[in-house]
């Protein structure tokens, strides 16, 4: 089992524990807002299972049917997670509306809130762990899970404050209003995650700062060539694919052109971690006047 898979298993264990605590808080209080918090934790457990499957598949080596590897399985997991987040938000809105139309007084709010706070702290700690290692290992699935858990932490804080106000003021309808606000926040989080995940599946280019780094490395280490053009990038899980045409003088030998390519690939491997570089050699008559990287 890979380190990422072990973290995914840990997320399932934490998710089940948090779900149990939050559901207990709901049962003790009867709060719609706490119910919405517990409902989101059910989604946390489901997506943790999807994350485990994704990181396990993405760790599989390339094969004849998947020559570029299996890393995009993580984006599929992230898309699924985003879809489940959106479903959870809609279910919470439904419960909030029903609670608003037929409000009920809270029971044992202090004990319920204390249990919910404990669940939130556990979620916050694990979210930090997932952020740290997900970014270090460039795992979209783990980072998506971390985002989801942190959203849960933020919404839990709002829920605890809101339910405390309900207990203090006695205004039962405020409980449903808080649940609806939590649902809106979750909807926004789910939309952002969906947008990022679909971008990965659609082979979006790397961010502008990474593109600038790639262009700088090529310009610095392609001495002897004329230019690099048609530079294309995309990400697949933790891998960054870089492809471009390297225009060389017509009289340059294949061996010399190959040496330049080796030099560029070595430099890019240090500048862009986990990169896969493909270079196509072109004669000088294929040089372009716009959009090319000029060799220093």
TrEMBL record:
Gene Ontology annotations of biological process type: intracellular zinc ion homeostasis
Domain of life where this protein originates: Bacteria
Alphabetized Pfam families for the sequence: Cation_efflux, ZT_dimer
GO cellular component, one term: plasma membrane
Family, similarity comment: Belongs to the cation diffusion facilitator (CDF) transporter (TC 2.A.4) family.
NCBIfam families per record: CDF
Name of this chain's protein: Cation diffusion facilitator family transporter
Record organism: Pigmentiphaga litoralis
């Amino acid at each position: 089992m890979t380190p990422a898979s072990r973290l995914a298993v840990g997320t399932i264990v934490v998710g089940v524990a948090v779900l149990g605590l939050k559901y207990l808080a709901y049962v003790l209080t009867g709060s719609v807002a706490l119910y919405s918090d517990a409902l989101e934790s059910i989604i946390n457990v489901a997506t943790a299972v999807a994350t485990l499957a994704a990181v396990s598949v993405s760790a599989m080596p390339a094969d004849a049917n998947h020559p570029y590897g299996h890393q995009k399985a993580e984006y599929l997991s992230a898309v699924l997670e985003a879809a489940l987040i959106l479903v959870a938000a809609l279910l919470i809105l439904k419960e909030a509306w029903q609670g608003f139309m037929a409000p009920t007084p809270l029971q044992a709010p202090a004990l319920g809130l204390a249990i919910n706070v404990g669940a939130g702290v556990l979620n916050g700690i694990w979210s930090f762990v997932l952020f740290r290692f997900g970014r270090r290992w460039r795992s979209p699935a783990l980072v998506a899970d971390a985002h989801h858990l942190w959203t849960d932490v933020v919404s839990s804080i709002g829920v605890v404050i809101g339910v405390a106000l309900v207990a203090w003021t006695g205004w039962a309808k405020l409980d449903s209003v808080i649940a609806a606000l939590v649902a809106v926040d979750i909807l926004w989080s789910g939309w952002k995650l969906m947008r990022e995940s679909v971008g990965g599946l659609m082979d979006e280019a790397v961010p502008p700062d990474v593109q600038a780094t790639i262009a700088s490395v090529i310009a610095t280490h392609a001495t002897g060539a004329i230019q690099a053009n048609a530079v294309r990038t995309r990400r697949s899980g933790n891998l960054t694919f870089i492809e471009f045409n390297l225009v060389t003088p017509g009289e340059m030998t294949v061996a010399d052109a190959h040496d330049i390519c080796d030099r560029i690939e070595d430099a890019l491997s240090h500048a862009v971690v986990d990169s896969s570089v493909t270079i196509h050699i072109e004669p000088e008559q294929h040089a372009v006047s716009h959009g090319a990287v000029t060799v220093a």
